[in-house]
Design goal:
The chain contains two helices and four strands. The chain is α+β, with helices and mostly antiparallel strands.
């Protein structure tokens, strides 16, 4: 059985909202759960990646499609 995957659609939001909402969602999750974040703010790539690393979680993947970013973040602690 795989861990639960939650989704956060942060498209249309701009810094600092995507990373702020990512933080709120991750804090509500259980360890081992995964969060998929969709964002279209160009700053979100660096902001969210840096937040994930700083807080000890795992950035499982980052996909870029045209103007859209899709992050897959695993809660580690």
């Amino acid at each position: 059985m795989s861990a639960t995957t939650k989704k956060l659609d942060a498209r249309g939001l701009f810094c600092p909202e995507p990373v702020f909402r990512t933080k709120i969602e991750v804090e509500k999750m259980q360890v081992g759960e995964t969060l998929t974040v969709l964002a279209d703010d160009p700053n979100a790539e660096e902001d969210i990646s840096r937040w994930v690393k700083r807080n000890g979680h795992e950035l499982m993947s980052l996909q870029k499609r045209e103007n859209e970013l899709e992050f897959s973040i695993k809660k580690v602690k």
